[in-house]
Amino acid sequence: MRNSDDVLVTRSRIAELAGVNRPAVTNWAGRYPDFPQAVDSMATGTGRADLFVAEEVGTWLRRRKIPAPALRDGELPGTTYGDRFLAALGQEHRPNPMTVVGRLLDGRDGLQRADHLDLLIALVYVFGTRMEDDRRYREHLTQSWRHLQYTLVEDGVWPPGRLDDRSAFPDVRRLDDMVRRAAAALQEAEWDQGSAAEALDHLVEFRMEADARGGEILTPSAVRRLIAGLLPESGSVLDPYCRTGELLEACVAAARDRDAGARTDRAGIVARGICGDESGAYLTRMRMRVRGIEPELVGWGALPEPDRFPGTVDRYNRVATNPPFNLRAGAHGWDPDVFRYGVPPAANGNFAWLQLALAALAPEGRAAVLMPDIAAQSMNGAERAIRGRMVQDGAIEALIALPAQLFGRATGVKATLWLLRPPTGHRDEVLFVDAQSFGSMTSRARRELSASEVATLIETHSRWRAARRAGEPFKGRSGFSASVPVAEIARRDHVLTPALYVPTERSPLRGASGRDEVDRLIAELAVRDEAARDADDRAARVLRKWQEER
């Protein structure tokens, strides 16, 4: 059987294998920026036609469902062009998890979307955690909703009555029919554990979109891989706001991948998360258990509070988190060792999360924290002072400005990734990377980083650290990366926006004043941000007074 990694295909061959006409392939390549790049073309001077790696093409085509009128005999609804392409290529082939999920989602039969997704998540979890069980035993677990529900409650991943208490809950017989049909489709797919885990990820993302609970969002998969790749290769991991456990899972998976072939105790990795709410705790357990990981979960709460954070006791090699942006945080009852750089303003908890991550680090550990752009340039007095002390104490290692729209419609706020280290107590340099131009649009609202872009960011950070260890200057890349002395950062009032420090080629249209104009605009934005916060506080005080006087 051929491995598609070794196969190159032309556009005509892609059309033939996918069952479309040649212009359709040209349209895909021209319309979608993320369509696989040719590995050989006329531009190389070889005179050969464009050639593409078949595996990359198949992966891309798996996102494109075949319209019902274009399905061939034997192709079920939900089949993708990628399924057809890879099957025609001669690969040993299992249905793509997203293809099967698409089929399952089409069978809602009047059930509310959130309830239907809960049911499918439950089924995929049972299949994913019982791969080695006897088939007849799995069929027994999935022959009715009651059997399935009992299994989930027994596993500690589903509260009793989660679906039953809803007013739109259908009659049990119809629900049992849906369970059996969906279970039969999963049985037919003959998934491995990785496929079940991938399908569960898709369903969890759909579930969070359907629920739209409090602005909760999943960390994009490419950002997960980036964070895991920037942190140490092994050791315990903590996420103080673990959402559905996606960053915990990414860090454990990265350690497992690096240990592949080595005789190491992979089961010994400590993965601890603090959950935002009860629902997130159940989803975290399900997602991680499907991957053979048993997480340690601690309470839940939407704000960082002293009694929910174990960082003053335990220390971790890796801390990775995507906390809520710009929300209030508890400011009382903290151990001084946690807020060692100062108490954040009551109206904004961004610097609470950053200091929490630092407080939890082991001596050789590293932390990666996603922050809104404003955290790097805020002119709020408390935040500016905390930021300055962190820089001067050597606690900030790098900042990476990420492109907009990574979170799709969930939020339009741009994010910066902060890399933190245990304080060195002396001045050093900080790595700045401006990756705002990275990524390509995969839909009208969502941008995604490619695997090669993620690798570039990880490699840049790795080269910077190697240069620092060797005592050599880091050679950054114009318009992309630079290593900046703390003295220069101090001259800019400890503003940490990467665009300020990454040198760019001067444009004849902009002239020498282009960088000064960027500085001015950033400073103006910070001032406006503070004015907006003050206005919000005044409005809140007026509203409270009005409510008290009613």
What does this entry look like structurally?
This protein is of the alpha/beta class. It is built from 19 helices and 13 strands. The chain has helices spanning 11-18, 22-31, 54-61, 81-89, 97-105, 113-129, 135-141, 145-155, 172-189, 193-211, 221-230, 246-258, 278-290, 350-359, 381-392, 451-470, 486-491, 498-501, 514-549; strands spanning 8-9, 52-53, 237-239, 271-275, 296-300, 316-321, 361-372, 396-401, 415-420, 429-434, 440-441, 447-448, 481-485. Strands 5-4-3-6-7-9-8-10-13 form a nine-stranded mixed sheet, sandwiched between helices. Helix 12 (246-258) links the parallel strand 3 (237-239) and strand 4. The protein is globular and about 70 Å long. The relative contact order is 0.07.
How many strands?
A: 13
List unreliable stretches of 5+ residues. Answer: 1-5, 41-47, 261-267, 506-513
β content, as a range? 5-15%
Radius of gyration: 26 Å
Number of helices: 19
Helix content: 40-55%
Strand order of the largest sheet: 5-4-3-6-7-9-8-10-13
Overall average pLDDT? 79
Structural class: alpha/beta
Distance between the termini: 77 Å
For the sheet with most strands, the description reads:
9 strands, mixed
Label the overall shape.
globular
Question: Which features characterize this protein?
Answer:
550 residues, alpha/beta, 9-stranded mixed β-sheet, two-stranded antiparallel sheet
List the helices and strands and how they pair.
Blueprint: E1 8-9, H1 11-18, H2 22-31, E2 52-53, H3 54-61, H4 81-89, H5 97-105, H6 113-129, H7 135-141, H8 145-155, H9 172-189, H10 193-211, H11 221-230, E3 237-239, H12 246-258, E4 271-275, H13 278-290, E5 296-300, E6 316-321, H14 350-359, E7 361-372, H15 381-392, E8 396-401, E9 415-420, E10 429-434, E11 440-441, E12 447-448, H16 451-470, E13 481-485, H17 486-491, H18 498-501, H19 514-549
Helix pairs in contact: 1-2, 1-4, 3-4, 5-9, 5-10, 6-8, 6-9, 6-10, 6-13, 10-13, 11-12, 11-16
